[in-house]
Specification:
About 60% of the residues lie in helices and about 0% in strands. By secondary structure, it is mostly helical. The chain has one domain. Pfam families: DUF8129 (PF26450). InterPro entries: DUF8129 (IPR058442).
């Protein structure tokens, strides 16, 4: 992964975050930012737990939460 791959991410330290920390840090993000992280995750690590946390947050936002 290069720095340019991570340049547009809403969390600059994304790759170093644990799943628990990520879950807390994404609470303040909007739908577009969560979608960016989901896309990045699918094309780089595609870690099941991370995708689950991001997808869950995206669903919460879409439901008004």
């Amino acid at each position: 992964m290069t720095a340019s791959d991570r340049a547009g991410l809403p969390l600059p330290d994304y790759d170093t975050l644990s799943v628990g920390t990520l879950e807390h840090r994404i609470r303040g993000l909007g739908s577009d930012d969560v979608e960016k992280l989901l896309h990045y995750e699918h094309t780089h690590g595609d870690r099941a737990m991370v995708v689950q946390v991001l997808a869950s947050r995206k669903h919460q936002i879409e439901e008004g939460g």
